[in-house]
Amino acid sequence: xxxxxxxxxxLVQAGGSLRLSCTASGRTxxxxxxxxxxxxxxxxxxxxxxIGWSGTTDLADSVVGRxxxxxxxxxxxxxxxxxxxxxxxxxxxxxxxxxxxxxADRRAVSFDYWGQGTQVTVSS
Length: 124
Hints:
This protein is mostly beta strands.
């Protein structure tokens, strides 16, 4: 069973930064495709970004130029979401998700395993 755990959320003022971490474990030798999603109250869960097996990243238009995805190792068992220039609209629960098939698109259904989420609150 794959376990996905996020950490690093918190409260920050607008214009500030936070770094979220995601760890994936449970399948030795697997290179995960890791995605980040967020869900604000009353809104649908939305794609934020992802990193594939090759290290290639994909970011939603709303965060390009502000958020950066990086990885701590080539297996993507440790992935970071660096969030800069945060806005109140970025307030949401942020989820990390993993696909064990090495690839995934931007849809939530393409990811197999999910973390419990971490709250990010940006005050104005």
